Amino acid sequence: MSMSTSTSTPSRATRAPAVEARGLVKTYPGEVTALNGMDVTVEAGTVFGLLGPNGAGKSTTVKILTTLARPDSGSATVAGHDVLRHPDRVRRAIGVVAQNSGADPVATGRENLRLQGRLHGMKGTGLDRRVDELLERFTLTEAARRPVKGYSGGMRRRLDVALGLVHRPEVLFLDEPTTGLDPEARTAMWDEIGRLAGEDGLTILLTTHYLEEADRLAERVAIVDRGRVVVSGTPDALKGELRGDAVHVELRTALGEAGRTLLDGALGGLPGVHEVLCEGRRVSVRADDGAAAVPVLLGALERAGAAVATATVARPSLDDVYLRYAGRRYAEAGTGSLALAGGAR
Ligand SMILES: Nc1ncnc2c1ncn2[C@@H]1O[C@H](COP(=O)(O)OP(=O)(O)OP(=O)(O)O)[C@@H](O)[C@H]1O
Fold it and tell me: What is the percent of the chain with per-residue pLDDT over 90, rounded to a whole number?
């Protein structure tokens, strides 16, 4: 048996996790529990999505991992460095793109990038080359001499990501990278994030409240609710755990207690139908064959005295995963500002 003497970058399987957080707890004044035992592991060279509604604790997690806040308890390492013991080492290894732009609106795109590089100790032709490279990569070369205040939302966001990358970090944190962007700019940003991870071997931890964003970009997602992870895995595995199709029925009026009991009785024994969830006017059912289940389901609902407004059949989405693990629909948990365009994959 020969021993390998290769010094090349270790494969994903053998590299230590780029981010590892265990049992993070954070309480803000006024007894607000932002984090309640948060665990996160991100393998090096992958894109990881922290998905959750507004207020779930995503930003607080990012603040702790980027050394901007201290947990009340728990521990975390980023790029192998302990966030509490060696915050300076962590800061050198990471790039952070916060929710609000860090760019100076009066300075030009190029000036912003140069300043950011100098803050990281870069100078001379090395810095010039890096700035040109990033302007090119984020299609900002033509706008490089213009003040940032004249940039579109998409251009500003691209500049924000470029600013986070100037010093070639190992781990990039993107806090809600596409919030507020129009659909076209959002798609362009998704393509860019995908390229960054694929080509540059960067580790990316992104937070999002867009289900579609997590589904499309992240190799693994953790669904966060009330300060902790309720479930994690690959988007496909999470959806795959939900057997069959999702059938959603909207009733004209919410069912009372008696109606629910009747409904349980009527749907409980139907072949191929599992997991009946009833919330207000909405009934969600998982069925082996969604299309075949609809007429049977409608008949059962009629017998239970429920008037149906609409019925839809879909492949399971991350919304259904969230419903199962958090016990309520995703849109109802946050502000409802969701982008579900494109639907389930
Ligand atoms: N500085 C603070 N002081 C008091 N409470 C805070 C503070 N920052 C966050 N919180 C509260 O902690 C909880 C978690 O907030 P956090 O910003 O981490 O959630 P989030 O999932 O990132 O949501 P969002 O998408 O709105 O940023 C919320 O209830 C929030 O109101």
Answer: 49
DSSP 8-state symbol, 323: H
Query: Is residue 223 within 8 Å of residue 49, measured between CB atoms?
Result: no
What residues pair up with 208 in beta bridges, in sequence order?
A: 51
Query: Do residues 28 and 34 lie in contact, with contact meaning Cβ atoms separated by under 8 Å?
Result: yes
Q: Tell how far the Cα of 28 is from the centroid of ligand 1, in angstroms.
A: 9
Q: 240: how many CB neighbours lie within 10 A of its CB?
A: 12
Q: Where are the alpha helices (DSSP H) in the chain?
A: 58-65, 87-93, 109-119, 124-137, 153-165, 183-200, 211-217, 235-241, 257-268, 290-303, 318-326, 330-333
At 8, the pLDDT band (50, 70, 90 cuts) reads: very low
Say which residue the tokens 């507004």 belong to: 54
Alpha carbon 162 to its chain centroid, in Å, reads 20
269 φ/ψ angles, rounded to the nearest 5 degrees: -95, 5
pTM exceeds cut of 0.80: no
pLDDT of 336 above 70? no
Contacts of 141 (CB under 8 A, 6+ apart): 132, 135
Distance 119 CA to ligand 1 centre (A): 29
Residue having the nearest C-alpha atom to atom 3 of ligand 1: 28
Chain mean pLDDT for the chain: 85
Ligand 1: which atom is nearest the Cα of residue 60?
18
Summarize the confidence of residues 78-105 as an average pLDDT: 94
DSSP calls for 210-269: -HHHHHHH-SEEEEEETTEEEEEE-HHHHHHHS-SEEEEEEESS---HHHHHHHHHHHHT
Query: Which residue has a Cα nearest atom 13 of ligand 1?
Result: 34
Is the pLDDT assigned to residue 273 strictly greater than 90? no
Strand partners, 314: 246
- Per-residue pLDDT tens over the stretch 54-86: 888 999 999 999 999 999 999 999 999 999 999
Residue 55: per-residue pLDDT: 86
DSSP 176: S
